[in-house]
């Protein structure tokens, strides 16, 4: 009897110590390295959720690569919604700080993106709640960069940055971003 | 010999990762110590005061009017600002300074807060850059720890009239 009690205590101890390892490590990995999220809604069609409500994509959000708030034009990023802090939204970066952009139905026809802000748009114009509604988004709200589609399995792929050709910024569009992408391709 | 060294190194790395992760969770979900600089919160918080900011109420969405919060600056995510919450979403706030003859008011949009420093003459805050998204709030300042003669809870706002109480 005493032996079983001792055994039980041993298991309890192992469970508690394992708990104190597993929970902080998991939380830290989800906060700092990578996060997995299901995409809901039609705002990013056709890049994400091409079949609409039938099957929703699951994406891997790389949180390590945005730790210094470095994103490129064309990246798909998740941000905390400026209108509802309990919700996260996933959109494409169209313009970085300092870019001039022609808006689609925002209160100003042309906008210079302020310092420390991003201009985000969904790929499905007109069905997306994006910067054309709420304006430029502060970089501090950045949550992660979508790097891979991991579910469904037949759509498993890396997400490459690409800006829709008609949505390029009017000024400040240096060749640098395109060159970076080309370099990446050459290395692979 | 080399095997023992290897296992020792592995154990050391394991402990480092474990304690690093525990530290991350503590700072991220419970609270952290912050040193404030700048004049914008005088006389409540002066330059080089050390305060404790708890993060639980931010995660539970329990930030209230009159709380002092630490938030990321909307224009530079690497910089933090320490201000008092004057209005939550839907509140009416006064956008003009205390010495202005004409009072102007505005409403705080959804998902945003209105932040102002206690030192109204010398503070860059929502009066200059408008409402701030709630997601930028990092924590609520609840205790002052340094200098030793003013340890304890923080004072109420000296300009309490700016917080409009609506029932």
UniProtKB/TrEMBL annotation, chain A:
Q: Which domain of life is it from?
A: Eukaryota
Put simply, this protein is called Uncharacterized protein
Q: Which organism is it from?
A: Pangasianodon gigas (Mekong giant catfish)
From TrEMBL, chain B:
Instruction: Give the Enzyme Commission number.
Output: 3.4.21.-
Q: Kindly state the subunit structure of this protein.
A: Heterodimer of 2 subunits, IMMPL1 and IMMPL2.
Pfam families the record matches = Peptidase_S26 (PF10502)
Recorded protein name is Mitochondrial inner membrane protease subunit
Q: What class of enzyme is it?
A: hydrolase
PANTHER family xrefs: MITOCHONDRIAL INNER MEMBRANE PROTEASE SUBUNIT 1, PROTEASE FAMILY S26 MITOCHONDRIAL INNER MEMBRANE PROTEASE-RELATED
What subcellular locations does the record give?
Mitochondrion inner membrane
Query: Which SUPFAM superfamilies does the entry link to?
Result: LexA/Signal peptidase (SSF51306)
- The record places the active site at 40, 83
A Gene Ontology biological process term: signal peptide processing
Q: Which Gene3D superfamilies match?
A: Umud Fragment, subunit A
From which source organism is this entry?
Pangasianodon hypophthalmus
């Amino acid at each position: 009897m005493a032996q079983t009690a001792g055994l039980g205590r041993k298991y309890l101890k192992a469970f508690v110590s394992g708990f104190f390892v597993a929970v902080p490590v998991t939380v830290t990995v989800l906060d700092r390295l990578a996060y997995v999220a299901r995409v809901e809604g039609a705002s990013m069609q056709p890049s994400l959720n091409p079949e609409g409500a039938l099957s929703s994509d699951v994406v891997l959000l790389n949180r390590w690569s945005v730790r210094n708030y470095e994103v490129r034009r064309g990246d798909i990023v998740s941000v905390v919604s400026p209108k509802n802090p309990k919700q996260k939204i996933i959109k494409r970066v169209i313009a970085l700080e300092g870019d001039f952009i022609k808006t689609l139905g925002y209160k100003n026809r042309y906008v210079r993106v302020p310092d420390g802000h991003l201009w985000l748009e969904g790929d499905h114009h007109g069905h997306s709640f994006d910067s054309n509604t709420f304006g430029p988004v502060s970089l501090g709200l950045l949550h992660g960069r979508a790097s891979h589609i991991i579910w469904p399995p037949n759509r498993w792929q890396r997400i490459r940055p690409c800006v829709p050709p008609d949505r390029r910024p009017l000024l400040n569009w240096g060749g640098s971003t395109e060159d970076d992408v080309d370099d990446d391709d050459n290395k692979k | 010999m080399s095997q023992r060294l290897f296992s020792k190194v592995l154990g050391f790395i394991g402990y480092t990762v474990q304690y690093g992760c525990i530290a991350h969770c503590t700072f991220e979900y419970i609270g952290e110590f912050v040193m404030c600089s700048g004049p914008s919160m005088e006389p409540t918080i002066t330059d080089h005061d050390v305060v404790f900011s708890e993060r639980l109420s931010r995660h539970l969405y329990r930030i209230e009017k009159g709380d002092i919060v630490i938030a990321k600056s909307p224009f530079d995510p690497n910089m933090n600002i320490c201000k008092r919450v004057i209005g939550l979403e839907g509140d009416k706030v006064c956008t003009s300074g205390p010495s202005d003859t004409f009072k102007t008011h505005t409403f705080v949009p959804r998902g945003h807060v209105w932040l102002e420093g206690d030192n109204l003459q010398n503070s860059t805050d929502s009066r200059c850059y408008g409402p701030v998204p709630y997601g930028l709030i990092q924590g609520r300042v609840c205790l002052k720890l340094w200098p030793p003669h003013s340890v304890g809870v923080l004072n109420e706002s000296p300009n309490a009239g700016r917080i409009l109480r609506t029932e």
